[in-house]
Protein: DUF4179 domain-containing protein
Organism: Candidatus Flavonifractor merdipullorum
Amino acid sequence: MLKDQYRREMDQIVWTGEQEQRLKEKMEEASGKPRQMARRLILIPAICAALLVGALAAGSVIWQKLQAVQGPFAGIAQTVEGAMCTDKGIEVQVLSALADEVRSKVYFTVRDVEGDRLDEALTLKKGERGDVTVGSAELLAYDSERRTALFSTETRNDLKETTGENVSLHISSMSTQYGYLEEGSASCAGVSQEILDSRPLDASDRVVLKTDDLEGNTPVQPEHPVVLAPGQTPGALEGTTDMSVSSMGFASDGCFHVSLTYREGVEDSSTLEGCGFYAFLELEEESDREWAFIMVRTEDGVDVCFPDIRVGEGRKPARVAFYGTYQRPGMTLKGDWEVSFRMERQSSRVLDWSGTLAGRQVWEVRLSPLTVTMESNDSGGFSSTSIYAVLKDGTLIEGKKDVGSYSNVSQSPTGEGWQAYNTWSFVRPVALEEVVALRLLGEDIPVD
């Protein structure tokens, strides 16, 4: 009981002096033991929390984001101590890791200790020696006051029997010159059926992208192609400060347009390689449909025409979104940042069960506090649904569908049918000793 109460409390708090005192008092009440014993029990996790607080500062943007993204897993995440290096005035420090035999997720910071060269568009390039995949690192937050960026990176592992191993994170360069618009969006609320000021295409304008509509027909440029005159309905584009909405509405060609303006030094990739941005328009009553568009590069940005959305036809645009890569003012810095640390993995167990489940033959199931993996002859149904850990008290913890793979008959243990490898990731940690079954497609796999 004391251990369970302690774990539950740990999962819910961020360490402050007041909360630490409250936890000590709760432990004393539960155990009936003196204050000295409670202090010993709290010492190790408090030290781990203090290490992170010391590295980040408890109130910082980075600390708050790390706590938020780890969520219920913060209580079992490994705190990594002393794993840092500095080159070219940039410090890289590994803060935390969460791993089992299937995957590992590492959280680390990049901090400018000499100047102010980083920003919210920082990207990293993996070095040759790293065990941890950095090329797909995700920027979670940037704290401009502390000139620090927080990244996470996830690696899929081969199954390992060891509980820990020495790994390294290696970065060979970093840059703030490459922007990626994951979803730069703006509301179309208030757009009327009136015609905005337009201007005809001139020598400096050029079509950089046409998309096909659902029937496979390339949209036709209006008979008298135009772009919106700039600055008529200025507004922000959520997700970026490198560009913004200049004008939005119906042009003199009768079609709906959205015009973006770039801040100085920004160039979309249509001037380099690729096709620039992809645009997506949602209507108030048809939000699930993609609309064809024609994108025109203008002097200070881009104008997007949606030729199927015409004035007076009653269709009301609700939201517009842009996706793509671009270049921006910034720096590229080459160096040699390598951080080594010992990664601790959550232990897993192979269930002492195999058999038929939902009409499929299951050969092996592996369970950890983070994931479930399964090998079977499933042909696709397992990968489209969640699995649930059934606890002793009847609680269900969802495991959401994750990556998987399918092989042909020649690789099947039985020599026929499919061979599937499916994985699921739990929404919160699972105590293996509390699990009595795994539930998939309405059927249970015994765990005891």
Notes: Helices lie at 2-12, 17-31, 35-56, 61-70. The CA atoms of residues 308 and 355 lie 54 Å apart.
